[in-house]
């Protein structure tokens, strides 16, 4: 959780769509199954059968050992990916848009954008999967140093855009009312 | 080729090589586990989720590591 400023409220907290996590889990099962599938298929090839017969039970033990080691590596990589997925988070607060981009375990990038600096918010869903499952990218354009602010594979981007626009409106209204008050005092 | 496989399996250094592979895997696993635990503790505020993730991760790792060690034991024996 990011630290909030004084008087700042957390409005929305979000992560990438669950489909992203699903691709990691699916990828794990697929890659972990590769060695057993190859071994199973090898039983149908004559040259492989000869090797299996020559190796006997010791070969079976060695191959099983490598299958488990391979599975362990895939398991470790699955959790690295899921950790990166889980820690890649963004927040909409009453004052700011905070995007924490966890690319790898040792690459964490935190970008902060003040709502009053946002010029335009655009959403984009590309392809069948993103359109059907309702996720996509949100791009906020600013006049500041970092001109584009992109949050990728966000679930329900339309709702997030609405919330950002609403909160930005509130911030701008507050700024206008402060200026009006200052004008009255100066008069 | 068949005799080559039999010769390879009969190599007296093979059990040591396999044990070395398992040892290196364990070192890699230990290093990654420390890094993952650090991230879970530092960035996750809900303790229950950290405990669940750790149980799942270490539970699965023990099964896979145990399987590898078991077949290595059978191979050496």
Description of the structure:
The complex is a heterodimer of chains A (187) and B (77). Chain A has two domains: 10-16 and 89-186, PH-domain like; 22-84. Helix content of chain A is 56%, strand content 27%. Chain A contains four helices and seven strands, in the order βααββββαββα. Chain A has helices spanning 18-42, 46-87, 127-133, 157-186; strands spanning 10-15, 89-93, 96-104, 107-114, 118-124, 135-142, 148-155. In chain A, the strands form two sheets. A four-stranded antiparallel beta sheet of chain A has the order 1-2-3-4. Chain A has a three-stranded antiparallel beta sheet with strand order 5-6-7. The longest helix of chain A has 42 residues, at 46-87. The radius of gyration of chain A is 26 Å and the shape is elongated. The model of chain A has no long low-confidence stretch (mean pLDDT 86). The longest helix of chain B has 30 residues, at 14-43. Helix content of chain B is 90%, strand content 0%. Chain B is elongated, with a radius of gyration of 18 Å. With 77 residues, chain B is mainly α. Chain B has one domain (2-76). Classes of the chains: A alpha+beta (187), B mainly alpha (77). The interface between A and B is medium-sized, with 28 and 33 residues.
State the main characteristics:
heterodimer; A: 187 residues; alpha+beta; PH-domain like; 2 domains; four-stranded antiparallel β-sheet; three-stranded antiparallel β-sheet; 4 helices; 27% strand; B: 77 residues; mainly alpha; 90% helix; 0% strand; elongated
Brief summary of the model shown:
By secondary structure, chain A is an alpha+beta fold. Chain A has helices at residues 18-42, 46-87, 127-133, 157-186; strands at 10-15, 89-93, 96-104, 107-114, 118-124, 135-142, 148-155. Helix content of chain A is 56%, strand content 27%.
Number of strands of chain A: 7
Taking pLDDT < 50 over at least 5 consecutive residues as the criterion, the unreliable ranges of chain A are none
Question: Mind telling me the C-alpha Rg of chain A?
Answer: 26 Å
The count of helical stretches of chain A stands at 4
| Element-level helix/strand string of chain B | HHH
Largest interface: A-B, 28 and 33 residues
Secondary structural class of chain A: alpha+beta
The description of the largest β-sheet of chain A is:
4 strands, antiparallel
Helix amount of chain A: 55-70%
Q: What is the first-to-last residue Cα distance of chain B?
A: 25 Å
Structural class of chain B: mainly alpha
Q: At the third CATH level, what is the topology name of the largest domain in chain A?
A: PH-domain like
Gyration radius over CA of chain B:
18 Å
